[in-house]
Amino acid sequence: MLDLEMKFCRFEAEVTVAEGHRIEGYASLFGACDQGGDVVAQGAYARSLQRLQSEGRSVKMLWQHDPAQPIGIWEEVREDGRGLFVKGRLLEDVSRAREAKALIEAGAIDGLSIGYRTVKSRKSEAGHRVLTELELWEVSLVTFPMLPSARVAAKGDAPEEVMLRDLASVLEDARRNLADS
Q1: In sequence order, which ranges of the chain are alpha helices (DSSP H)?
Q2: Where is the Prohead serine protease domain (predicted)?
Q3: Which of 47, 97, 112, 120 has the fewest beta carbons under 10 Å from its own?
Q4: Which residues are CB-contacts of 37 (< 8 A; sequence separation ≥ 6)?
């Protein structure tokens, strides 16, 4: 796993636990600058996701980027106009997955992070590294995400509240990016 980079993402009420063990949310948002000065461009994951699918492999769900601690299965990983959407399930027979579920519901764990290798990038006029192609390896549940606007939600948030918080977060990130330009 040489050259593995990690991109932490915290979204306002974005990752939720439902039906006891199902989780979904955005692991990455396009155009949002993280604390390391990186911005993921739309389409950055496309080749990697196509390659994984053609090879019959999948993006791994890990606990805190530890390859010795898989805690579930991502059943859907896709790009949309907003970012990298993930949907999967925690494996209830895995003790760390049961702990993760309890920690998410209590609000103690509230982040997602991607593990990847940068294939292509460029510098923006504002001096940010724009990641244009990434080789995605895993998406982890984490304690400390890099993107401050990304956060996991406890079960029970109303979809409208989640959507409004997400919109406010994206607009705030855009405002900051414009101010930095």
Answers
A1: 46-54, 95-106, 159-180
A2: 19-155
A3: 120
A4: 127, 128, 129
- pLDDT band at residue 160, thresholds of 50, 70 and 90? very low
Question: Would you call 23 exposed, middle or buried from its count of C-beta atoms within 10 A (0-12, 13-18, 19+)?
Answer: buried
Tell me 132's DSSP state.
E
Domains along the chain with CATH numbers: 5-180 (3.20.16)
**78/140 Cα distance (integer angstroms):** 16
Under a CB-based contact definition with an 8 Å cutoff, are residues 137 and 5 in contact?
no
Structure tokens at 102: 């309890």
Q: For the segment 39-63, what is each residue's pLDDT rounded down to a tens digit? A: 999 999 999 999 999 999 999 999 9
Nearest to 9, CA basis, from 99, 132, 144: 144
